Amino acid sequence: MVSQQTIRRVVLTGAVAAITATGALYGAGLKLQQEHKQAQKKVYELPIEERIAGLETKRARLVTQKEDIERKIAELQSRRAPVAKPQD
Questions:
Q1: Where in this chain does the entry annotate a coiled-coil region (predicted)?
Q2: C-alpha dist (Å) from residue 47 to 31, 42, 54
Q3: In a domain, 6, yes or no
Q4: Is-contact 36 44, C-beta < 8 A?
């Protein structure tokens, strides 16, 4: 039979591990939030010309991705066999 002290030890160990894990996750979330705010602040401090250039670069990348996806969709549609219509 398991003694009361063994049960207490297991519960206490599990509780400490859960609290530690929760604290680590919470701290990591706070750090990510802080880093995101700092990155946003850097972007807002850039001159307008650099911000516009960055947005144009991002737009060009997105347009390229869009064209690639549209090409893949067209390839899939052309490979798809035509569906035969049942005759009554």
A1: 52-79
A2: 27, 10, 11
A3: yes
A4: no
Q: Any idea how long the chain is? A: 88
Q: Which residue has the tokens 């009554």?
A: 88
Domains in the chain: how many in total?
2
Residue 32 counted as domain residue: yes
Q: In the numeric block, which tokens belong to residue 74? A: 């067209």
Query: What's the N-to-C CA distance of the chain in angstroms?
Result: 75
CA 66 from centre of chain: 20
Note down the domain range covering 54: 47-78
